[in-house]
Amino acid sequence: MLRPRIIPCLLVHQGGLVKTQGFKSPKYVGDPINAVKIFNEKESDELIVLDIDATVHGVGPNYSLIAKLAEECRMPLCYGGGVTSAEQAVRIIDLGVEKVAISSAAIANPALLGGIATAIGRQSVVAVVDVRKRSGLFAKGYEVCTHNARQAHKVDPVELAVRLQEAGAGEIVINVVDRDGEMKGYDLELARKMREALRVPMTFLGGAGSLEDIGELVGTCGIVGAAAGSLFVFKGKYRAVLINYPSSAQKDEICRRALQFTKN
């Protein structure tokens, strides 16, 4: 039986594990390898690790870190950061990673996804689309952004996601910048639009503050990936650093929400 995937998303900045708000003000929350060990113990469905420095500084993937993560990780691992070629993606997969995430390079050149899919298999190619609401008094809708939300692209996110799907992405991750670190819930309106438009697996990131938020997402969209950062590294209103993950019983309840969606 297919089940929703509940996925911690870890951000790496200057070698450490951090959490941001609105893609800004990274707060150090620990060592990435130690975090992986804890998520192993908690039997996480998957894990996403994103190096938020690589693209901004124009450097390639950190293969040394990737090798350490893959060696420790006992769950499917998706890694992103600085990937601009099929050769880099092959090397990452060879280190033991299951999925490779590409964002700005894929948006600049969607055909890149096809080449990477040929090299490592479409199921291992993940396109990440960072989205935010347009700013300005009369602005409406959303825009796509890259380079840690420093560059804006006047393109409709849903249309872009479909284009990346057609180009070769085996999964699409939608990351909502406005909700990053806010812990006030997913953008369900955007999630619904993406769910209706795409055929490949989807994962939504940005805004989860409780397991109820995840339940609302799968109740709205069905069998999707529900990713979160702050929810799984902070605890309580003062955001004390404490890595956590739902129990089997809590995950079963979330799955029931997804099953209800499919019946409707």
Quick synopsis:
The protein is an alpha/beta fold. It has 11 helices and 14 strands. The mean pLDDT is 94.
Overview features:
264 residues; amino-acid biosynthesis; single chain; TIM Barrel; imidazole glycerol-phosphate synthase
Shape: globular
Sketch the topology as an H/E string, one letter per element: EEEHEHHEHEHHEEEHEHEHEHEEH
Q: What fraction, in percent, of the residue positions are helical?
A: 25-40%
- Main beta sheet strand tally, sense and closure: 8 strands, parallel, barrel
Name the strands of the widest sheet in spatial order: 1-4-5-6-7-10-11-12
Low-confidence stretches: none
Distance between the termini: 17 Å
Task: Describe the overall structure.
The structure is a single chain. With 264 residues, the protein is of the alpha/beta class. It has one domain: TIM Barrel (Alpha-Beta Barrel). It is built from eleven helices and 14 strands. An eight-stranded parallel β-barrel has the order 1-4-5-6-7-10-11-12, surrounded by six helices. It has a two-stranded antiparallel sheet with strand order 13-14. The protein is globular. The model has no long low-confidence stretch (mean pLDDT 94).
